[in-house]
Amino acid sequence: MNEPAELDPVDLRILSALQNNARLLNKELAATVGVAPSTCLDRVNRLRESGVVTGYGVDVDPAKLGRPLQAFLYIRVQPHRSALVDPFVEHVLGQPETRGLWHLTGADDFMVHVATEDAHSLQRLVLDAFTAREEVTRVRTNLIFQHWAGRPLLPPETGTG
Amino acid sequence: MNEPAELDPVDLRILSALQNNARLLNKELAATVGVAPSTCLDRVNRLRESGVVTGYGVDVDPAKLGRPLQAFLYIRVQPHRSALVDPFVEHVLGQPETRGLWHLTGADDFMVHVATEDAHSLQRLVLDAFTAREEVTRVRTNLIFQHWAGRPLLPPETGTG
DNA sequence: AATGAAAGTTATTGTTC
DNA sequence: GAACAATAACTTTCATT
C-alpha cells in the first residue's frame, strides 16, 4: 500500500507539470508531456488511484486575507501519551490561525505553522491557545521572514532508470 | 498592493470550498456556494486577479515517490549578508530533496523541509549539501513523524462582519 | 452585480491498432 | 498501452434584469 509507485518518464513529466500548475487543461498537459489527451487523462487518473496524487489545492496569500504575520510555534508536551496527544492535535487543528501541524523528533514535540493578523493576536494565540493548556510545558515562537516553495518533488535518481 | 482584499460571504465560501478541493468543477462550486455558475466564475477570476488565490497545486505522497523519510533542517548561516544569503537560497532550492525553505527569526536562520529515500541519503544530504558549505555553521535535523494539514485559511473575525 | 441562455471547447468514452 | 473519433458535459461569453 505504501510502496513506491512504478513511474515511467511520461508519469514524471506529468507530475512535474502538475506541481508547477495543477490547473493545466488536460489538453494542454497532454501536449506538454507529448501524449494524446485520452492517454494523458488515463495517466492522471492512474496517478490518483495509485495514491501518488492525493489531492488538489489552491495557494492563498495569507496577507490578502488579513493575516500578514506568520510564525512557527515549537511546542513541548508533557506526558506524551496518545490519550493526551489526540485531544491536543484536535485543539491545534481547530484554531483558525493553524496552517499546518507536525509531530517531530527532538525536544520540541510539535511544530505549528500559524498565520495571524499582527503581533498582538499572535501573542494572544500563544498565551490562550497553547501556554494555557496543561499538557503544554513550553512554547517557542519563530516569526517567518520569507518563504520559498521547493521545485516539483520527483523520485530519487535510480542510476539505471 | 498587499492590503487585505474585501471579501463578502460568497467569496469566503468559495475560498473554503476550493481549499478543501481545488478540482471542483465551476458548476459544482457554484452549487456549493449558492450562486449561478457565471457568477461563480466571475468571483473566482476576481480572487485570482486580486492576488488572494496565487496558484493551484497538486498534493503528492512523498512515500509513493520513493521518499518516505521527511525532515526539517535548521540551518545557522554565518555572515548573514544578502550577498551570501542569495546563493545559499538558490543552492537549497536546487536540491531535489527540498520541499520548502523558510527564513526565520531566531538563532537558526533557515528551516528546510526535505523528503529523502532513507536515513543514509538524509545523512549524505546534510553532510554534502549543507554542512560542507562555508557559510553554514550549524545544522540541526528533526525527523517528521506525522503531518496534519490545517483547515482552510480564512480572514480573522472582524466583529461586525 | 447577478442571472439565464447560447456558443465554443473540453473532458470522456468506446473502438481500433 | 496508446491513439482516433464521437458524444456528452462543461466553461465562458453576452445580453438582460
Give a structural overview.
The first copy, chain A, is an alpha+beta fold. Chain A folds into two domains: 9-50, Orthogonal Bundle (Arc Repressor Mutant, subunit A); 62-144, Alpha-Beta Plaits (2-Layer Sandwich), CATH 3.30.70. Chain A contains five helices and five strands, in the order αααββαββαβ. In chain A, strands 3-4-2-5 form a four-stranded antiparallel β-sheet, covered by helices on one side. In chain A, β3 (98-104) and β4 (110-116) form a beta hairpin. Chain A is elongated and about 60 Å long. The two termini of chain A are 22 Å apart. The mean pLDDT of chain A is 94. At the A-B interface, α1, β1, α4, β3 and β4 of A face α1, β1, α4, β3 and β4 of B. β3 of chain A pairs antiparallel with β5 (136-149) of chain B. The first copy, chain A, binds a DNA duplex (17 and 17 nucleotides) through residues 25-27, 35-39, 41-42.
CATH level-3 fold name of the largest domain in chain A: Alpha-Beta Plaits
CA-atom Rg of chain A in angstroms:
20 Å
* Portion in strands of chain A: 25-35%
How many strands in all of chain A? Answer: 5
The CATH architecture of the largest domain in chain A can be named as 2-Layer Sandwich
Principal-axes shape call of chain A = elongated
CATH class of the largest domain in chain A: Alpha Beta
Unreliable residue stretches of chain A: none
CATH superfamily of the largest domain in chain A: Lrp/AsnC effector binding domain/regulation of amino acid metabolism (RAM) domain
